[in-house]
Structure formats: structure tokens, C-alpha cells
């Protein structure tokens, strides 16, 4: 798969982790969440109330079903909540070094191999620039955008998780379905899977997650 196209997708699909924080007017559903679903959402709310910042190793796998193409990118994630907007930084290390910084909806991308720094125009996707952080906000924000359904409990890397299926309430949503694996201790997603209309999907796994490590502001700067 063309790497530049892959990174464009990575920016839109991966760098765009926050429909949770959007305020779009979506149609309301009358379906009441199950007790199991409400339990997971309540756990996520408790985690969100105390979450200030976090860091984690990430493994990002993109699967293109039609041609059976699988690509893997690894790196680091840094995230910080602020009153006037969140900061998210992805530092991809292998196979293509790249840094993506999302600060209050503005995106910067740095490619060290060619020493290029640029800010793409996201157009209509500008408000969705934190989509990659789906699951790291309040349940009220989440259920305003998605219909949530508890699926099952499933271990990920020996960690007990509850699996939530999220279906967008908007017919024009970027993804047809989002799956969250919510850590039953941390109350935060440790794996996210985003499905496209084509059936292709992107899976992001977080490992060695550190919650509230008091990240310095300098981390959220691009160093050339």
C-alpha cells in the first residue's frame, strides 16, 4: 500500500480520534442501554473524571480486506486534557517515522526523513481532528454521537476488558462501526477498532499505558 496514502488515512482515521467531544446535532434513539452497557459507561465516566493526561505505546494495524493487505505501525501516544482544548501527539517510529500533533483542532505533521513540517487542511473533518481518542471522554458525549451496546467480556494481553460496540447516529459518519475494548480496572479503552464502509478496518492497541504521569508541555511540541 502506498505509504503516503497510508499516512493520509492515518491522519484522518487515526489522528482523528474524538467524535466524543463533538457537539453535532445527531438524531436521538429511543433504545435504552442495557444494564451491562450502563455499567461500562459508568466505569468510563469515573475514569474520565480523574483523567488529566496519559502516555502509551501504540500498535496500529490497518487491514484492507479486498487485497488482504495488512500494515503495522508502532509508536507512542501522548494525550492531555485542557479546559480550552485537548492535546494529542502521535510519534510513529516504525516503519515510517512521523509525528502528528493535534492541538485544539489544529493538526501539524512532521516527517523527519525529508525534514518536512506542514499543517493539512482538514476541511469538513476539522471538527473531528481528535477522532482517534474515541472512548476517552464522558459517556454523555459518547452516547450523543453513538448508540452503545455491551457485547461481551474479553481479555486483551491478559487484561480483562468489556467490549462495547458503537454505531454512529449520523448517516454521514466517517466510520460505520467502532469497537472499544475497555479495561475493567482503568476504565479506559486499551484497544479501538474503526470500520469503514468497504469493510476495511483500523485497529489501535495501547500498551504500557501510564495514567496522569504529569506530562510536561514540551512533550506537545514538534522537535525538528
List the helices and strands and how they pair.
Layout: H1 3-14, H2 35-50, E1 53-64, E2 69-80, E3 87-94, E4 98-103, E5 106-111, E6 116-118, H3 139-145, E7 146-156, E8 159-168, E9 177-183, E10 189-195, E11 201-211
Antiparallel strand pairs: 1-2, 1-11, 2-3, 3-4, 4-5, 5-6, 7-8, 8-9, 9-10, 10-11
CATH topology: outer membrane lipoprotein receptor (LolB), chain A
Under CATH at level 1, the class stands as Mainly Beta
The helix tally amounts to 3
Topology as a string of helices (H) and strands (E):
HHEEEEEEHEEEEE
How is the quaternary structure best described? single chain
Principal-axes shape call: globular
Widest sheet: strand ordering: 6-5-4-3-2-1-11-10-9-8-7
Question: Can you put this structure into words, describing what you see?
Answer:
- By secondary structure, this protein is of the alpha+beta class.
- It has a single domain (3-21, 36-216), classed as Clam (outer membrane lipoprotein receptor (LolB), chain A), CATH 2.50.20.
- It is built from 3 helices and 11 strands.
- The protein has an 11-stranded antiparallel sheet with strand order 6-5-4-3-2-1-11-10-9-8-7.
- The longest helix is centred in the N-terminal third of the chain and has 16 residues, at 35-50.
For this entry, give a set of tags.
224 residues, alpha+beta, outer membrane lipoprotein receptor (LolB), chain A, eleven-stranded antiparallel beta sheet, globular, disordered N terminus
Amino acid at each position: 500500500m502506498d505509504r503516503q496514502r497510508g499516512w493520509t488515512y492515518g491522519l484522518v482515521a487515526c489522528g482523528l480520534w474524538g467524535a466524543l467531544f463533538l457537539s453535532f446535532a445527531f438524531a436521538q434513539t429511543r433504545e435504552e442501554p442495557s444494564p451491562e452497557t450502563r455499567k461500562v459507561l459508568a466505569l468510563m465516566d469515573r475514569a474520565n473524571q480523574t483523567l488529566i493526561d496519559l502516555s502509551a505505546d501504540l500498535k496500529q494495524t490497518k487491514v484492507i480486506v479486498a487485497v488482504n493487505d495488512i500494515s503495522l505501525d508502532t509508536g507512542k501516544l501522548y494525550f492531555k486534557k485542557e479546559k480550552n482544548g485537548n492535546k494529542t501527539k502521535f510519534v510513529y517510529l516504525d516503519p515510517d517515522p512521523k509525528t502528528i500533533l493535534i492541538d485544539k483542532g489544529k493538526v501539524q505533521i512532521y516527517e523527519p526523513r525529508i525534514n518536512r513540517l506542514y499543517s493539512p487542511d482538514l476541511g469538513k473533518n476539522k471538527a473531528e481532528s481528535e477522532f482517534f481518542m474515541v472512548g476517552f471522554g464522558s459517556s454523555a458525549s459518547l452516547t450523543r454521537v453513538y448508540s452503545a451496546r455491551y457485547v461481551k467480556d474479553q481479555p486483551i494481553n491478559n487484561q480483562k476488558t468489556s467490549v462495547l460496540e458503537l454505531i454512529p447516529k449520523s448517516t454521514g459518519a466517517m466510520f460505520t462501526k467502532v469497537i472499544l475494548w475497555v479495561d475493567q480496572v482503568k476504565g479506559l479503552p486499551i484497544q479501538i477498532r474503526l470500520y469503514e464502509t468497504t469493510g476495511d478496518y483500523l485497529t489501535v492497541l495501547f500498551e504500557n499505558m501510564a495514567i496522569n504521569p504529569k506530562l510536561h508541555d514540551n512533550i506537545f511540541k514538534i522537535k525538528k
